[in-house]
User: Fold these one by one.
Assistant:
Number 1:
Amino acid sequence: MNEEILQQCFKAGKVASQVRRETAAKLAKPGTSYLQAMDFAEQRIIQLGGQIAWAQMAVNEVAAHFCPDENETGVSKEGEIIKVDIGVHNQGYIADNAMTVIVGSSKEYKYLVKAAQNALKAAIKLVRPGTQLWELGEAQSSEAEALGYRTVKNLSGHTLEHYKVHGGISIPSYNNKTKTELKEDWQIAIEPFVTDGQGLIKEGVSPTIFMVEQLRSARTPYARKILDEVKTQNGLPFTTRWLTRKLGKGPALLGLKELQQHGIVRAYPPLPEVSKGMVAQFEHSMIVKDKTTPYTRHEDDEW
Ligand code: CO
């Protein structure tokens, strides 16, 4: 992998890890507005010299894919477990990382959070050229099970590519028998989701996260304005409030509807655990080498 690309990744990773930690620390205090926390995360990415790939969060039984819209009134509450998933890029080279915090002083889900952290750590230790994907999966599920939990089987890590969140290869969080081997210089994100529920998520309702799926011309001016607005994301996600704030709620929602109907834009709804189990997640991005340190690792991270 060329040195310049590596540097872009490392630079994105520094910003992503810093913003992840700062945002999570805010949400860990009871009474923090979800909306303000996510606005903060986006502003902070820019302030630290990164480009926004996404800033997302998810609460309790929701595993991922929540972005507050502009009318969101939710605040963090004692005992909630909140996932913060931050994506930063530099010229399309992405750092993807996530962590879980328990709000306030509750200890109820301490071991659930620990299990997710252990799962990530165990998988990272196996990352090197030649490791088969099932091995990474098994490492994660066995750490979760050691503390009495399960990994969420229908969520997985992924390869990262230039301006692509999902490079096409999934990294399982259980032994799914995939014998594909990691190759040197692959850019990957490992992200175990661990739950006290059944270990499966479904698609929820009211999506606020979208991606352009197929760039085609749109019919109405509303839809065209949206495509124009999200052009700089270059296929990376965007969220409803960016559009409603800029174009007004009516036009933004109408435009989004049209774009989805024509298959130009795809919605990524929140992902609740099917049995309403609590979900914890940790994630790091790394380049596959003989010795790998995630480039989203922060000096204050336990893992
Ligand atoms: Co990811």
Number 2:
Amino acid sequence: MKLEAVELIRLNVPLKSAFRTSFSSVSMHEVFWAHVITDQGEGWAECGANDRPDYSSEYHTAAMDVIKQFILPDLFAMGDDLTAEKVAPAVHWMKGHRMAKAAIETSLLDAQLRHQGISFAKYFGAVKDRVPAGVSVGIMDSLGELMRYVDGYLNEGYLRIKLKIEPGWDYEPVKLVRETYGDDLLLQVDANTAYTRDDFDLLKRLDEFNLLLIEQPIFEEDLLGHAKLAQYIETPVCLDETIISADIARDAIELGAAEIINIKPSRVGGYLESMKIHDVAVANNIPVWCGGMLETGIGRAANLALAAMPGFTLPGDTSASSRYFETDLTEPFVLVDGHVSVPTAPGIGVDPIPEIVERFTVSREWIKR
Ligand code: OSB
Ligand code: MG
């Protein structure tokens, strides 16, 4: 395949309600898409980077810059020798910038598989045609507000609730949700690194609520700290921010720092690295689940395909489009019996709807070979 041109499309898509985590409150999903044109057809991907370097060191302006200055020149230079599988080796010299790399690799994989008539799900070796959906519930201003949201999501049929936590918003909300809905509710929490090694006793108090897992309790570089915490508490420790590669996944598992792994393709540099992490986890009996970055349909479609791989044994943050947006930019993903369908059409399996995309577009830029 030969890469002819890339369009970077910046979009501002309003969220239905503000999504607050321990690191930010977002009411506008500010993202960009990579739209590649190759000699075999076009492809699409959503970059997972936020507008600020708050979840990871990446942010969308920087990701776009890295794509333009470094990633594309290397790929243009490969002529017609390019495949999606060759992207990661070609840009391996470049430190970090995994979300930028993932956006380009994924859009090329989309182009390649659309041309071959193969869906992402088939390429990944998916074993399900629909995946169980959880929902990530942000930090709220009050317990009453939290309960209205949790109640609404459970009524819609979500199969698992994830509560965002931070110091001061942990024990009480978890206790209230557990006591209101009983022991059968699949319940987990996500701290996005908000705690420290000094908080282990506080986190141990959550043991009484029989949580599925606690996600990324402390600093992402503190592998040993997570291993110590995993020893100290009953709740399984799940890593998100820390796991940026299959190598780190292997080490975290061996160290006892990751009893469960959240796989987010953007964070790890793409779907091919995600498949490797899946395989490392499965080989070590570590459950994985698919995380999210509030993706529009373009990113969500690919995540759903990944979540249909056999090792994804826990419900993901692969919620329906209506969890996030009044209007998605592709055919919306809907919740049916707590599940979301895995796309079956070639590539990511969905297309942007031009009139809707237009409404949310902030800017477009073409980079040609
Ligand atoms: O830590 O999983 C996270 C959203 C943005 C950044 C980080 C995270 C999240 C979520 C929501 O928890 C996941 C989703 O529903 O897409
Ligand atoms: Mg997380």
